[in-house]
Amino acid sequence: MVVHPWLPNSPKKIKEDMLKTIGVKEVSELFSDIPEKVRFKGEWDKLEIGFGRPLSELEIQRIIDDILSKNKVFKKPPVFLGAGVWPHYVPEVVKYIMSRAEFCTTYTPYQAEISQGLLQALFEYQSMIADLLEMEVVNASMYDWASAVAEAFLMALRVNKGKNRILIPSTMNPMHLEVVKTYTMPRGVVIEKVKYDSVTGLIDLEDLKEKVAKGNVAAVYIENPSFLGFIEENARDVGEIAHDGKALFIMGVDPISLGILKPPGALGADIAVGEGQPLGLGLNYGGPYLGIFAVKWDMKLIRQMPGRLIGLTTTVDGKDRAFTMILQTREQHIRREKATSNICTNEALCALGAAVYLALMGKHGLKKLGELILYRTNYAIKKMNTITGVKAPIFKSLHFKEFTVNFDKTNMPYTKIHKELLKKGIHGGLYLREFFPEFGETALYCVTELHTKDDIDLLIKSLKEIVEGWSR
Does domain 92-357 correspond to CATH entry 3.40.640.10? Predict the structure, then answer.
């Protein structure tokens, strides 16, 4: 066995003691959740990796360019794929400010108050998001929507001690749900799905009432718009049912929709979460993104919030205003295992970008953007229904930005349709069979301000050619 000069735990005796302490005999036991067929079984010191010699900068650049050239770039038209992250326009000024040396870090320094500029930027982010959501307290960011909703569920369990049931809509974003299960499974939390109306897709209020009446419910969660794009018109009723059962009401939102839809605060939400990616962050494979997290003014809730909070105060002499981190006893750098979460400043740079975007857009700009997306969504839906055998959407509700398209009557599998679209330089919507098998050959399509009328018309023309050519 090789004893590494810089790794103190490499001697065999130390490794054996470590394994014994955690109750396992072999290191391989730690990887039991990784399928056997994908595990490396050779000797690490004989593994041939790299290029056999150091490479020059020019050689490295060529190799990287070769790898990146395999990527397909969809700009005209943009991708019609959403499902949690969406193609939106990113103003150049957002990119510029995020790249400045004063800001280009995800960290709030541990001596935070010496960085007044960054703290002020985060305070402005919190203030604008609070205004947008009509919620009083917003933290300085979470990882993404998925982590934000998972942390909201854990927070609800802390607030409603002794309760372990959380109710969610059956149409909840299935990828978010997987993250939620990872967070909550070790804690004995019971996640229950509430039925949806077969015609509208809206949450079934009678089923919700029955489930809440059984008791022990810590929180009720809905998404508005839903993962499938329809607007949850029963949101206020859902909140009232939750509160009647002494449960917290949690709402997940797309912030872009709030230019035209009622915000969570106006609908009675106790906690609001969402994805800040549409606010000037663009599309990135794996992120980073921006989890939005807010609560109403209730110290019982505020003291259980995860993440960092930036507050406004005055200097010691009282002459100037100053920004500072507040309620830090909730956080992992103070309380370790007793902290409300282990998320602190990882998305501060993304929060800064969102603040710049919101400042640029303003209330009027967000309203205009929301109206434009709503118009284009409905234009795309109308045009979809001109294709033989296609139905859009599958639910009779108002949709925003995303909508379902069913291809059952074309007798053509959607996987084939999607491949044919790719050949035409068009990236279609997300195939939903894996998540909602009851929907059949259905895909989730997305339309934003980036999709022009010509882009939508090109999609429709291409789908017609594919579907009608197949039927012939």
Answer: yes
